[in-house]
Amino acid sequence: MDRLQRPVWYFAGFGLAGLISASALIIADDHHCIPRLAPFAWVGITFGFFIAICFWIYVGLQSIGKQALFICSCTVAYYLSVLVANVWDSHVPALNSLRWGNWGPGAEVFFVAGWVGGFVVLAAALLILLPQQAAWRVLLKAAGWSLVGGILGALGYVMERFSVEQPYRWLQVIGNASLFVIWQTGMALLLALAFRLEHGSSNARPVQDTLAGNTGVRPSYSSSALRVIFFATILILLAYFVQWDLRASMHHL
To answer: Of 17, 34, 231, 237, whose CB has the highest number of CB atoms within 10 Å?
Structure first.
C-alpha cells in the first residue's frame, strides 16, 4: 500500500525527522561535537540526511545519487541563508519596528533567510520527486511554498529573542534552540505537505511510477536542461562554500 495513503504516519515521520535533526544539532553543538572543519556544512547535511531517510521510507526514493543531490542542496540552502542574512542585515535598511530591542538582525532578516533556504530545499525536493512536471512550474511553486519557510524563520527569531529576557535558565536554553527546532520541524512538515499535494494534483499513479518517470509524460528538453542547470549550480555553490568554510575554520584552529 502506498504510504502516502497513511497521512498520520506520513506527516508524523517527516515532523519527527525534522525534530530529530534539530535536536541532534543542538546537542552536538552544546557538547562541542560538531567538527571544527567546515562546521556550517553539518547543519545542512544533518537535515538533508534525515529528510532523505523519509523520502526513502515514505516516498520510495531509492536512488543514492538523488538522495545525495538533495543533501547537497540542503547544505547549500543553509550556506545561502546565512549569506543572505548577513548581506541583508548589512546593506538593506532594517525595519526597526521588527527588531527586538536594538540588538542583532531583525525579524525581516530571518524571514528572508528562511525563505531563501526554504526555496532551495523545496525546489530540490520537488525537482527530484516530480520529474514529470515542468521545471519552471516546480520552481515557481517552490518560491510560493517557501514563504512558509520565511514565516518559520521570523517565528524562530521571535521565540529566540523572547527567551533572552526570561529569568530562568531552562527557558533561555529552550529559546536559543527554538530557531532550529521551529524551522527544521516546520520545513520537514512543509516538504511532506507540498509533495503530497503536488503528487496528487499531477496524477493518480503510484509514487514509484512517478519517480521512475513512468507517467506517460516526458519532460521537455528545456525542462530537463533547467533541472541540470539547477543542480549544477548547487554543486558549484557547494564546492565554493565548503572551501570557504574550510579556509575560515582552519584559520581559527
So the answer is: 17
| 150 contact partners, CB below 8 Å, separation of at least 6 | 111, 112, 114, 115, 118
156 three-state secondary structure: helix
Weakest mean pLDDT among 25-29, 57-61, 67-71, 214-218: 214-218
User: What separation in angstroms does the CA of 207 have from each of 111, 122, 211, 214, 226?
Assistant: 33, 18, 6, 10, 23
Nine cell digits for residue 168? 530562568
Four-CA torsion 231, 137, 112, 49, nearest 10 degrees: -40
Torsion, CA 131, CA 198, CA 47, CA 242, rounded to 10: 40
Read off the amino acid at residue 41: A
